[in-house]
Structures are given as C-alpha cells and as structure tokens.
Amino acid sequence: MDALIALIHAVLARRVIRFLIVASTSASVYFVVLYGLEAYVEIPASVASAVSYALAVPVNFFGHKLFTYGSSGQVAREIIPYIALQFANVVLSGLVMKVAVDVFGAPVIVGGVFVLVTIAATSFLVMLRIFKPAK
C-alpha cells in the first residue's frame, strides 16, 4: 500500500511540475505578444490583451493535452470542455478579485495572486477530467 501511495505522489508531482511548465510557457507567449502589440503595433491595451490571450490558448491547450496529461483523446472532444473552462476562469477571476479586494480589503496585487492560485488549482483538477492519459 505504501508503494502505491508513493507512486501516486510521484505521478502527481511530475504532473504538477509539467503543469507549471506549460502554464509558464503560455504566460510567456501572452506577455511577449502583449508587449509586441502594445509597443510596436500601438493598439489599445485591452485589444492587445485579448489578442495575446487568444494566441496563448492553443499553446496552453496542446501543451497540457500532450505534455502535462499525455492525452490520447480526440481534440474535438477535449476542446469544448477546455474552452468552457477558460470562460469559467474569466468569471472566477472576477469573483475572486471582488471578494479579495472588496470584501477583505486586500490590495489588487494580493487579489491577483489569489486569482492566479485559484485558477491554477481549479484548472489542474478540471483538466484531469478533460484530458485522458494514453493507455
């Protein structure tokens, strides 16, 4: 039994590390594109942010599908719940920020940290259900 628990911990630890690598890569794509659009194309920050996020989503999806979770499932079946998760994350980010800042009086930067931690944790757990590892 101890060996099984150790194996489960090892698999989860490896998956969490891979999750963080993909999340960091996606965030890097977002920030590089955001900077480039705002600095060189000179479009409004809100538009640049939306375009940057849209370009980071495929990196995030395929990174998690193939690297984090090793899914062998069909993209068509996985993309719809993944997109639903992204929309839910947008709503969740607003709710967490509202509670952190307006209810508890936290600074916005602290609210942002709570948002990132909450979304990372919920995304990791939900993606365990979306992406089925190859057998």
**Which series of helices and strands comes N to C?**
HHHH
Through-space gap between termini = 23 Å
Segments where pLDDT lies below 50 for 5+ residues?
Answer: none
Major sheet: none
As an assembly, this protein is: single chain
Tell me the radius of gyration.
Answer: 17 Å
Helix content: over 70%
Give a count of the beta strands, DSSP E runs of length 2 or more.
Answer: 0
Strand fraction equals under 5%
- Per the principal axes of the C-alpha atoms, what is the gross shape? globular
Structure class? mainly alpha
Number of helices: 4
Number of domains: 2
**Mean residue pLDDT:** 89
Short overview:
The protein has 135 residues and is an all-alpha fold. Helices cover 86% and strands 0% of the residues. The relative contact order is 0.11.
Overall description:
- The chain is mainly α and 135 residues long.
- The chain folds into 2 domains: 1-68; 73-135, no CATH class.
- The chain is built from 4 helices and no strands.
- Helix 3 (75-103) runs antiparallel to helix 4.
- 15% of the residues are buried.
Characteristic key phrases:
135 residues; mainly alpha; globular
List the helices and strands and how they pair.
Blueprint: H1 2-41, H2 45-68, H3 75-103, H4 108-130
Helix pairs in contact: 1-2, 3-4
